[in-house]
Design a protein that fits this description.
The structure holds three protein chains of three kinds.
Chain A: H1 3-7, H2 23-30, H3 33-65, E1 68-69, E2 76-79, H4 83-90, H5 92-123, H6 130-138, H7 145-156, H8 162-169, H9 181-209, H10 213-221, H11 226-237, H12 239-254, H13 258-263, H14 273-282, H15 288-319
Antiparallel strand pairs in A: 1-2
Chain B: H1 4-8, H2 11-22, H3 24-27, E1 34-35, E2 57-62, H4 69-83, E3 86-91, H5 96-109, E4 116-120, H6 124-129, H7 137-142, H8 152-156, E5 159-160, E6 163-164, E7 167-172, E8 174-179, H9 180-185, H10 196-203, E9 211-215, H11 222-232, E10 238-239, E11 242-243, H12 248-262, E12 267-269, H13 274-279, E13 283-289, H14 293-299, E14 304-307, E15 319-320, E16 322-327, H15 334-347, H16 350-360, H17 372-377, H18 380-387, E17 391-392, H19 396-399, H20 404-416, H21 422-448
Chain C: H1 29-32, H2 41-72, H3 77-80, H4 95-103, H5 106-137, H6 143-153, H7 162-171, H8 178-182, H9 189-200, H10 204-212, H11 217-228, H12 230-246, H13 249-254, H14 263-266, H15 279-311
Helix pairs in contact in C: 4-15, 5-9, 5-11, 5-12, 6-9, 9-12, 10-11, 12-15
Classes of the chains: A mainly alpha, B alpha/beta, C mainly alpha.
Chain lengths: 320, 449, 317
């Protein structure tokens, strides 16, 4: 039995066993394959058609727009080939957007996964009342980004915010959270991690609770302390969970929009790619073609990250 | 054992995906722009409304400026009672950007357009360039709008190419707010400073608050209110289409602003609405929209004084107008356009614009509006109305170039927050704005002629 | 692949017994003396410091900002914009809520949000179950390609879809209709992905037993697969409900009639387009409370399933 089979929780499914297509089942089902054909269509077609119509069709439309010099609202446009793409990769604004996207993604993914793991470890004890903590820590994940952004904006306000008041009590001045582009990025990262770390914590908790007891006990009998047990045994065993989280949190971070837009509407210092897509088309510039090009680039990034992760990380998972 | 994810993305699968991409263009045609078409198609045609009957039901997209939803609903009811035309009030968005996003989306789809839409000062011009809105001149004449009773500076803002493209609605100007308690404690006169030099002098005595003066926040207001400083020093963003940002006077003006924050340290830059900082007592004075007056009076625990914007060494009006207007889309039926014009006329009637003004704190559009009851209740509003006679049309560079307001805010941010070199920042800004003009504006306005 | 302890499903995974405190566990003795509770004398301090401190901190970090939101919504303007932090409003008032209620028809928004969320979520979940079942248990050519296409759909940024979808839905007459709000979001890639992975973990032997009993796909789906996948389906349900409820940009674009607006869109009418001085912050906080509280209630009701769906083994704990 492979360990990953045991360790992955239900929804973090990355390393779950593929039961599909085992020879036994294939034989048994083959007689009914013609009927299956129609059953498959009846079951899957509605969803597939909807996805094709409302996700793929826009994606392709977008690909078309990305080759145009098109001012949103204008009825005409000029075909300019790859100019929009070239501009994004060569202009200073484009490079800055990529850098900000990189920082935001690394910080939010790292932050929510590390903190999530720590909280998961803390929650992984049979203490009365831990359900309350578990519920509480997951709660922000379900809240509206618009609402959360507003609440935190009020807390971060350098003059009237609760945070500024706390800082004043210890004789510090609040940073200019919105005006200073670097602090603005820090601010949205903090809020984003706050909203999402519960998700990581819960998924890690699931991973921890399905670790095989025998292995840990054996290690303990060998004299390994709790820290050592965590680093050398639990963490490697958790790698399928880590893998699942890595994919989902990176995808989520790259598509983070509501919080950033509500807290920093001008996008100075916080214009990650998805926000830049919005800003270029709707935020004042009306550059629909350029915006579409950034959207396509972002999509390609997302695709590449997933492929690389699957190819690379899976080997490690397998090894574990 | 293999993971489902791994085998999922085989090379073959990826190949079949890229094949799918090749079919992109065949599918993608509908709803977008005509590629390679002549952009003079964008010109809105003037419509003759002789013999047209107004539509019975129209949509009105608003941002409800100044929390205007209630008063808008009331005025709409009055309008329906009077004319029988039903108006469906639509929340077009939370701010001017959202309503613009929505308007442009409907425009691209050529469907679901309203009959009347709220247009902000920095957005209407690109609708004009794209032929999205109609000139109102025929309608103004036919419906007898009594233009001479409108306040000229508010109406002029929507004139270009000899035509009227929108009518004022929810108009505001910046206003100088000061904390009378702080001024008293400092032994200053109970009035706004006449010039910025005077205020710089006064600021030395203003020690009650964290900072004597708060500049408006960059995202929303910097580009707008800083025209005050520029004009007072004989500078401007642009003279018509000629950018003037790198001229000596402009550099000096921005240097003066930077010094007030970093050298003389009597000013700070607000991070959110500066009206909040003022009402909370963080600063002794600020510049904010007249639209914030009601809110400031409500929140402040001290005596609020208001005055004209301080002038500079050069004579002439130093206060820009701002806010929104009402326009009529081009791609709707003449019947709807006519009904829309009737509605715009109604909203501009002296008593209606007065009611709107009372509810929101925006400026009345008409000279004959009776504001005495409102002034009695909120005396400060009189100053704002008087200042209207000393306003100046905004510089083309800010309001007519798409994205210019954002570019200006970015440059100002680097000058004021990051202490960037003023000349260099302005040179960069000028280059960006010139690029926007050459690429997005010049070809279009030339074709319009 | 399976052993005696391998779970057949998350809900039966209690057999996959979770160790009691294996990783953060401070006392090695606990493995030997399982009955020693966390409150035994030698353990009390350790439990309080190592066990409860992080839990309490985590709870506070989450709860305080939300509490602050609720308290602020009862404050008057001068208590909001002040540098001397007012923790408790001197005269707590419902004025902000009253303003919010008077400005916009909140009950109507609420109803619309509930309709859109319920219908949209139910259809999405059913579609996800059917698709995932088909992908796992029904024979069909190019299943992998189809699955990857679904996976890739997860990576399409939602912002790119606004304009093309608006064009389509508007042409079909979907502006200001419930179906216009709901339909474009119905195709569900996330739910299908998650449920497919869960279904894959169901041992084929169970399905085969059902097939031998003569059950067709319809029966095996509802009698076998769905019952043992409840926690995962609950997880999909929560994520779907949350997404539908919080969706903002699409309903904003597709609805123009205020009688059709959902809560997040309708509440934007509360914000002043030229700043929110004074009562602005209080009204916004009241608005945030109105958006946030209902979803918290739903979450509290579903959380037992969700958390167990995500944490698998802890259903009985």
């Amino acid at each position: 039995m492979s360990v990953s089979d045991q360790a992955a929780p239900a929804s973090p499914p990355a390393a779950r066993g593929a039961a599909e297509g085992t020879p036994a089942r294939r034989r048994r089902f083959s007689a009914r394959s013609r009927r299956d054909f129609w059953v498959f269509l009846a079951f899957a077609a509605p969803n597939l058609i909807l996805i094709a119509l409302f996700t793929y069709r826009p994606l392709l439309t977008n690909l078309n727009y990305s080759l145009l010099d098109w001012t949103l609202g204008s009825t005409t446009a000029q075909f300019i080939g790859l100019q929009n793409y070239i501009e994004f990769f060569t202009s200073e604004g484009g490079r800055r957007t990529m850098l900000i996207t990189l920082i935001f993604t690394v910080a939010t993914v790292g932050g929510s996964m590390v903190l999530g793991l720590l909280f998961a470890v803390a929650m992984n004890r049979r203490l009365p009342g831990r359900t309350v903590a578990r519920t509480a820590i997951f709660a922000p994940y379900v809240l509206s980004g618009v609402g959360v952004g507003l609440v935190w904006l009020f807390i971060f306000d350098p003059n009237f915010g609760a945070l500024a008041w706390v800082l004043r009590q210890v004789a510090l001045t609040s940073p200019q959270w919105v005006n200073d582009p670097n602090w603005a990025l820090v601010m949205v990262i903090i809020v984003y991690v706050w909203k999402n770390l519960g998700y990581c914590a819960i998924v890690y908790l699931g991973g921890l609770q399905s670790l095989p007891t025998e292995v840990l006990q054996a290690a303990e009998l060998d004299g390994a302390g709790p820290v050592r047990r965590f680093w050398s045994i639990a963490l490697p065993l958790l790698s399928p969970t880590t893998f699942f989280l890595l994919i989902t949190t990176i995808l989520n971070s790259l598509q983070a929009f509501d919080i950033i837009r509500i807290m920093t509407p001008a996008g100075r210092g916080t214009n990650v790619m998805i926000f830049e897509v919005y800003l270029q088309a709707f935020g004042g510039y009306s550059r629909a073609g350029y915006s579409a090009a950034i959207a396509v680039i972002l999509f390609v990034f997302l695709l590449l990250i997933t492929v690389i992760q699957i190819r690379y990380v899976e080997k490690k998972v397998h090894y574990a | 054992m293999t993971s489902p994810l791994r085998t999922g993305l085989s090379r073959r699968t990826l190949l079949s995906l890229s094949g799918l991409g090749a079919g992109a263009f065949a599918l993608a045609a509908c709803g977008g722009p005509t590629v390679g078409g002549d952009s003079s198609n964008d010109k809105a045609k003037e419509v003759d409304f002789e013999g047209v009957k107004p539509a019975k039901k129209i949509d009105f997209w608003s941002t409800h400026p100044g929390g205007a939803k209630e008063i808008e609903t009331k005025l709409i009811k009055d309008f329906t009672d009077k004319t029988g035309i039903e108006v469906n009030l639509v929340t077009g968005g939370q701010n001017y950007e959202e309503i613009a996003q929505r308007f442009q989306t409907a425009q691209a789809a050529n469907s679901g357009l309203p009959a009347v839409v709220v247009l902000s000062d920095v957005w209407w011009f690109r609708y004009f360039m794209n032929g999205n809105i109609i000139p109102l001149d025929n309608l103004l004449k036919q419906l007898d709008f009594q233009l001479d009773d409108y306040r000229e500076t508010l109406v002029e803002d929507y004139q270009y190419d000899g035509k009227q493209w929108a009518m004022p609605y929810g108009r505001s100007t910046p206003l100088f707010y000061y904390n009378r308690d702080h001024f008293k404690a400092a032994g200053l006169e109970d009035r706004a400073p006449k010039t910025w030099d005077e205020f710089a002098e006064w600021s030395k005595k203003l020690t009650e608050a964290d900072t004597p003066f708060m500049y408006p926040d960059l995202a929303g207001y910097a580009g707008w209110t800083l025209q005050n400083v520029l004009w007072g020093r004989g500078a401007e963003y642009s003279h018509e289409w000629d950018l003037k940002l790198t001229e000596q006077k402009s550099v000096e003006a921005f240097q003066w602003v930077q010094d007030s924050v970093h050298k003389e340290k009597w000013g700070q830059v607000a991070s959110s609405d500066s009206a909040d900082s003022f009402a909370g007592g963080v600063c002794s004075a600020t510049i904010a929209s007249t639209g914030s007056l009601v809110g400031i009076l409500e929140a402040a625990k001290f005596d609020v004084g208001v005055g004209f914007l301080p002038a500079g060494p050069v004579d002439g009006p130093v206060c820009p107008t701002g806010g929104a207007g009402l326009g009529i889309p081009a791609a709707i039926k003449p019947e709807e356009q006519l009904a829309a014009a009737e509605f715009i006329k109604f909203m501009g009637e002296p008593e209606n614009t007065a009611q709107f003004s009372a509810a929101t704190g925006y400026m009345p559009n008409r000279k004959s509006s009776d504001m005495s009851a409102i002034i009695k209740e909120t005396p400060q509003i009189e100053t704002a109305i008087k200042q209207l006679e000393h306003t100046r049309k905004q510089d083309y560079a800010r309001v007519y170039l798409p994205g210019a307001d954002q570019e200006i805010a970015k440059a100002v941010a680097s000058i004021l927050n990051d202490k960037a070199d003023v000349k260099q920042s302005l040179e960069g800004l000028q280059k960006n704005l010139q690029g926007i003009y050459d690429k997005d504006v010049k070809p279009k306005i030339e074709k319009q002629k | 692949m399976s052993t005696a302890t391998a779970s057949h499903s998350p809900s039966s995974a209690a057999g996959n017994r979770a160790p009691q405190g294996p990783v953060g566990g401070r006392s090695p003795q606990r493995y030997r003396h399982r009955n020693t509770g966390p409150f035994s004398k030698q353990n009390l301090v350790g439990t309080l410091v190592g066990g409860y401190l992080p839990l309490i901190m985590a709870t506070l970090v989450v709860a305080l900002p939300l509490l602050w939101m609720v308290i602020s919504s009862f404050k008057s303007p001068h208590e909001l914009v002040t540098q001397d932090l007012v923790v408790w409003p001197e005269d707590p008032s419902l004025a902000n809520y009253r303003t919010a209620m008077n400005t916009v028809p909140i009950p109507r928004f609420f109803l619309n949000s509930v309709i859109v969320t319920v219908i949209g979520s139910v259809i999405k979940i059913v579609l996800a179950i059917f698709t995932a079942y088909a992908l796992v248990f029904v024979r069909f050519p190019f299943k992998r390609v189809i699955f990857v296409l679904i996976l890739v759909a997860l990576m399409v940024p939602p912002q790119v879809a606004i304009l093309p979808n608006y064009v389509l839905i508007a042409q079909l007459g979907g502006v200001n209709t419930y179906w216009g709000i709901i339909v474009p979001g119905l195709g569900t890639a996330f739910g299908t992905f998650l449920l497919r992975q869960q279904f894959l973990s169901i041992p084929p032997s169970i399905l085969e037993a059902a097939t031998l009993d003569g059950a067709g796909h319809w029966k095996s789906l509802w009698r076998v697969v769905v019952p043992i996948s409840v926690p995962s389906i609950a997880t999909v349900a929560l994520v779907t409900i949350v997404t539908e409820w919080n969706d903002y940009i699409w309903p904003l674009i597709i609805v123009t009639d205020s009688h059709m607006m959902t809560l997040p869109v309708g509440l934007t009418a509360l914000a002043n387009s030229e700043g929110n001085t004074g009562s602005g912050w209080g009204i916004l906080m009241a608005g945030a409370v109105l958006i946030i509280i209902p979803i918290l209630v739903v979450f509290a009701m579903l959380q037992r399933y969700i958390v167990s769906g995500l944490t698998q083994g802890s259903v009985t704990g």
